[in-house]
Amino acid sequence: GYGRRSGETMRERPKKYYTIGSIAKACDVLEMLATKQSWDLAELSRALKLPKTTVHRILLTFEDAGFVQQEQRGGRYGLSHKLFSLGSQVLGHSSLLDVARPFCKELLAAFDETVNVCLVSGIDMVIVDKQVTTQTLRPDNIVGASFPIFYSASGKAFLAFSEEPYIEETLRKIRTDTWPPISDQAYAAFLRELEDVRKTGLGYDYEELFPGVRCIAVPVFDRSEKAVAAVSVTAPTTRLTRQTTEKIERALLKTGRDISLRLGSNHPLFRSMAD
Fold first, then answer.
1. Residues 32-40: what's their mean pLDDT?
2. Non-local CB neighbours of 239 within 8 Å, separated by 6+ positions
3. What is the mean pLDDT of residues 103-109?
4. What does the alpha-carbon distance between residue 173 and residue 51 come to, in Å, rounded to a whole number?
5. Are strands 203-206 and 146-148 parallel, antiparallel or unpaired?
6. Are 34 and 81 a contacting pair, CB within 8 Å?
7. What is the mean pLDDT of residues 26-35?
8. 183-226 pLDDT tens trace
9. Are 57 and 41 in contact, with CB atoms under 8 Å apart?
10. What is the pTM (predicted TM-score) of this model?
11. What is the DSSP letter of 72?
């Protein structure tokens, strides 16, 4: 899959002076649990390369705290909905989502195509809110799903307008941590694409994540003129005709401007736009 190096865990990354080993192991357990509906203890231990006794103690601790549930005594382990609940509470405090949601609903009403709001997480973009099309043929992404910046329209739109030190650090991580590794040719093309995004304000995914699905995205800025999110429209390629695409592009730019204005931004990208 895409993301960090295959099989890499927190314990295998460069260790910082403040790293607490037991917490790092616990984080690895949570991340691994999230990749499947349920795990057998021995299977999970092998995947994590940790002793069964260590993994079992971590699982029991998480179970007591309500983060993990066991199907039956001696049975398989899986995550509970508590993490989702905590994440939902965090999102519930976000003024960004409160501001963005009405404008995203307008986009949905105008085109009946799925609209996503995405935030950055490491070298990934995470869907934190969405408005779903009523059409039968539609992308099957859920809130909480993440996609690599390198391959996603939202990632390109966000990164292109980020601050230079952040861009440099993120590009370095993309080169070292993306799996499968990125070729020099693909990386050079990505840099050229970021330059195009800076000119148009629009990022594109040309079926790079899922065959038959395309995405168009625009950045959102806060009052410090900092890119804080991306809004995207995702649809099957068969429905994105040239005419429809041009209409969505214009509407997305207006949406990005309107949300940014509500957040206190008057970013240069949007200043020349007419209603």
1. 88
2. 113, 135, 137
3. 97
4. 30
5. unpaired
6. no
7. 90
8. 999 999 999 999 999 999 999 999 988 899 999 999 999 988 99
9. no
10. 0.69
11. S
For the chain, the residue count is 275
Q: What is the 3-state secondary structure (H, E, C) of the chain?
A: CCCCCCCCCHHHCCCCCCCCHHHHHHHHHHHHHCCCCCECHHHHHHHHCCCHHHHHHHHHHHHHHCCEEECCCCCCEEECCHHHHHHHHHHHCCHHHHHHHHHHHHHHHHHCCEEEEEEEECCEEEEEEEECCCCCCCCCCCCCCEEECCCCHHHHHHHHCCCHHHHHHHHHHHHHHCCCCCCHHHHHHHHHHHHHHHHHCCEEEECCCCCCEEEEEEEEECCCCCEEEEEEEEEEHHHCCHHHHHHHHHHHHHHHHHHHHHCCCCCHHHHCCCC
Side-chain half-sphere CA neighbours of 22 within 13 A: 7
The edge-to-edge listing of strands for the beta sheet with 227-236 is: 146-148, 124-131, 114-121, 227-236, 213-221, 203-206
Beta-strand ranges (E) seen in the chain are 68-70, 77-79, 114-121, 124-131, 146-148, 203-206, 213-221, 227-236
- Which residue in 153, 93, 150 sits closest to 117, CA to CA? 153
